[in-house]
UniProtKB/TrEMBL annotation:
It comes from Seriola lalandi dorsalis. Belongs to the ERGIC family. Its main location: endoplasmic reticulum. GO terms for biological process: endoplasmic reticulum to Golgi vesicle-mediated transport; retrograde vesicle-mediated transport, Golgi to endoplasmic reticulum. The lineage of its organism: Eukaryota, Metazoa, Chordata, Craniata, Vertebrata. This is Endoplasmic reticulum-Golgi intermediate compartment protein. The keyword Magnesium does not apply.
């Protein structure tokens, strides 16, 4: 009974075989079949190689959600050079709640406003990258992946040139509340005031006013590689002493998660405006550099993703099976068409040969020599 049961089970398994074997005596190998097989295997190898590169590649996924973090502080990273001496200018932040933020984290360093050739080359390269970013937005994904990080090369100052340093480099960071505010650099040092703050501009002569400036770096949040900020490398030069530069900045909280970097930071977009202060012409205001920023309520999540292994294997099987089936079907169709053409050709030759003797016989009967008639 057990043997019968095993035989029945084996018979049932054989009947379920979806890949029946064909005896080798019934298989015929042809040159055309070998050529098609060679082409199919080459296509499989090339497409599988390309698919492997697709598997190794990564892409950025962007998601948007409401920013629920409203209690933390916002870090402002500043590196600005102004074409005035450090004792004549002051920088601070005043937020929407009329809260003056202490500028203890900022350092004032006397420098030359003109850049060295190496620094100028770095600035031109940075401006070129930003110009390409405005046209090709996908370039930012490449920067995220590679985590490119660069800084302005240091400029060596000689001891004799210490007295000729007519510009001031303001660099450092500030921690402010996550509300709209105004970061500004204007004439005179800032002092506290019951209604906000004030600058001691009366002690500075108008002849020393020159708010030509260069923004080497301005960012919000944690400084991470792979982000080139819109104002980095910006340079403004003016010949008017009373000049106001305004930058309107919209800050977007960003959570970045790549294979190189994982951090919470901020990106921003900016529009700018500048005008000459002329009270007689109706252009009122205060000379200086003003950066009015506002924080978006939406947060952007940037995640670097990779094709999973199972999807790569499925696509690979699809390539191999698709090419194998397609080439087999094409080979069968081409073989069928060749057989039909050959059969038609052979039948045409056969008919031509079959009709040829009749024509020869008729020609022989009609062309009897004259000697035969004379003998008869």
């Amino acid at each position: 009974m057990r043997r019968l049961t095993k035989k029945k089970a084996l018979t049932l398994v054989k009947e379920l075989d979806a890949f029946p074997k064909v005896p080798e005596s019934y298989v015929e190998s042809t040159a055309s079949g070998g050529t098609v097989s060679l082409i199919a295997f080459t296509l499989m190898a090339v497409l599988a190689f390309l698919e492997f590169f697709v598997y190794r590649n990564t892409w950025m996924r962007y998601e948007y959600e409401v920013d629920k973090d409203f209690s933390s502080k916002l870090k402002i990273n500043v590196d600005i050079t102004v074409a005035m001496r450090c004792q004549y200018i002051g920088a601070d932040v005043l937020d929407l709640a009329e809260t003056m933020v202490a500028s203890d984290g900022l350092k004032y360093e006397p420098v030359n406003f003109e850049l060295s050739p190496q620094q100028r080359l770095w600035q031109m390269t940075l401006l070129h990258i930003q110009e390409r970013l405005r046209v090709e937005h996908s370039l930012q994904d490449v920067l995220f992946k590679t985590a490119i990080k660069g800084a302005l090369p240091a400029q060596l100052q000689s001891e004799d040139s210490s007295t000729s340093l007519s510009a001031c480099r303001i660099h450092g960071h500030l921690y402010v509340n996550k509300v709209a505010g105004n970061f500004h650099i204007t004439v005179g040092k800032s002092i506290p005031h019951p209604r906000g703050h004030a600058h001691l501009a009366a002690l500075v002569s108008h002849d020393t006013y020159n708010f030509s400036h260069r923004i080497d770096h301005l960012s919000f949040g944690e400084e991470i590689p792979g982000i080139i900020n819109p104002l980095d490398g910006t340079e403004k030069v003016t010949a008017d002493s009373n000049h106001m530069f305004q930058y309107f900045v919209t800050i977007v909280p960003t959570k970045l998660n790549t294979y190189q970097v994982s951090a919470d930071t901020h990106q921003y977009s900016v529009t700018e405006r500048e005008r000459v202060i002329n009270h007689a012409a109706g252009s009122h205001g205060v000379s200086g550099i003003f950066m009015k920023y506002d924080i978006s309520s939406l947060m952007v999540k940037v995640t670097e993703q990779h094709m999973p292994l199972w999807q790569f294997l499925v696509r690979l099987c699809g390539i191999i099976g698709g090419i194998f089936s397609t080439t087999g079907m094409l080979h069968s169709m081409v073989g069928f068409l060749v057989d039909v053409v050959c059969c038609r050709f052979q039948m045409g030759i056969y008919r031509h040969l079959k009709e040829a003797p009749l024509d020869v016989q008729e020609n022989s009967e009609t062309s009897v020599p004259p000697e035969n008639y004379s003998q008869e």
